[in-house]
Amino acid sequence: MFRTLYFLGMVVGLTLGSCSDATRFKVPLQAKFKSAEAYTQGNVLTVTTGTFERTWELTENGLVTRTLASDGAFEILGDIPEMVDWKLPGILNPNAPGQLISLSANAANDQDFTNEHLEISAEFDYPEQGIRLKYVIWAYPDAPGLRTQLFLKKNSDDLPFTDQEEKGRAEYLPLAHTDQTHQLIGYYNDTQHRNTHANEILKDSLLNGQFYQDWANIVVLRQENKGVMLVQESHKCVNQAGIFTGGYLLDSLGLSATGLGIDHEHITENYRPLWAYWTIGFQGDTTELQTALKRFDRMRYPIDPKRDIYIMANNWGTGSSGEQSKFASREENILKEIESQKDLGIDLQQVDDGWQGLDYNNWDYVASASNATYGTYDVYPEGWKNIKKAAATSGLRLGLWAASHIPGEDLLKHFKSGGFTSYKLDFANLNTYDKFHDFVNKVRTFILATDHKVRVNWDVTENPARIGYFFGREYGNIYLENRKPKTPENVIYKPYLVLRDAWQVARYTNLNKFQVSIQNIEMVDRNGSDAYLHNHPYSVAIALMGSPIFFQETQYYSQEARDQIRPLITAYRKHRHAMYQGYVFPIGDTPDNASWTGFQNHNFNSNDGYLTLFRELNNRDNEHAVQLHLLKGKQIILTDLMTQETVTKQVDTNGWIQFSMDTPADFRFYKYRTP
Description:
Oligomer: single chain
Number of strands: 36
């Protein structure tokens, strides 16, 4: 028997035998995919992953959540004050009667964009409003939670739109625990301008009692040592609300997610999506919370080793001006970069802005370009032929930058002619429903046209609405931040701030879906950064638990630097496939340039993993205790992957273990295993 995770504070008092014909599932549903299962009894729909279970009551208005548990046991605690999980002001009248017209379940994988799961779809007709609604549930086998999403379409051009004063509701859990302490979690975008000690990338707040907050990606409700969280799958950031992302409301009726993602003006004759939500249960401390979230995140956004594991270099990040960086994208320079990257052990060269010339209206490569600084110069006089051949000879893959408005047919053209497998689409401002979904659909169509041979990476570097942290990672990775040597001043590379951003991103996401920047510390402005007081491997090691990206022209590394970096990359490449099977957790203290800090990568199947541990520049302690996750009371064997020295250590009953480093601005890269 599994432990119960959470019972709802208010549960409908109807028994299975008392429902009317109008609220009874007329055609029974019984479907199973591995450990995931969906079935109906009377007027109750039950969906389970084998670990997490949720039930809904069929009412005259739709479906209303009845219980959340993980052992299949139900407890009737009272009457649910609401009769349907969704509220759609401006679209449906409150308590509008709806008829269930179909209920189905089948194994699915969203056209290979996510892990296989059991997909349950319930379709309702609201004839008085001219609206049809589809409620879709994804049950991943053995997942710690479920994903739900609403879709809407209209049956009439003359919709009787309703009062929009009331807050909408796309997800509802009647959890009326307003006397508890609750947690709200969100991430900031605009990393281009958030590169100071004061500007953290994470907002993590505790609240008591009732609340309405509209900045958070995640809300966590706890009762004793049990908890449930809601995650909005949207592009919301703390400092960018995006499109109808709403907020989280906890009141006497329970927990509501008010972000619909759509308004009545964007409803068409075809089903259109609202924001999806993840409902995830956990039992235990912060480690268990992070574990449940990351397990679900990995199922939703899986990693394909053939496509998603690579070290990238992007030539933009060395230049001191746009003209200089565009000049770096020409063929002559990219050929030098391919040779340099082959020597270092880098996998993928991404050609940044400039290959198309100096404007953003043409999306073919140009033979030449001209500006005031460099005069007229060759760009790609023979097209992609020469860099494609050089990359193939050197065993590298190629990537391509483009502005977000590049037509899909041009993306496909360059895939076919240049063999580019990784794309970065820049300058997006997805501030309307149509802009957002047209852009995402263009990317999806492009990837399908290549039979999933390519991935598209997004970025959170600017404040305009883009993809955010919890959306779109089935299509590629998130590029976290520009960090450059000299200009502009607001993005000068500072090691501890890059480390802090990655450390905080690793708390509530899977870091290996985020690109973490590496810069040439010899070139960084000494007046604006203390990077020069570190060594080159330290800069590289910061990125190893994420998706490493050398945001620079690597040819400018000195021979001494190359000799330092190469052994670390060699060690990383040997172990990275195993690392991508693990889950990354932050360890130590928050990076502040004076801490012991780092990352733990844990594989739950083998119960082993990896550590990258940093003693920061201004830290005075040669020895320090660090608390590890998931290893309380265990003996572990640590292997230093740079020296191959092995030592056996005992983790105490609270997870603490002692480490030592003789000098500050140093790091260790360990593999650990339990005997």
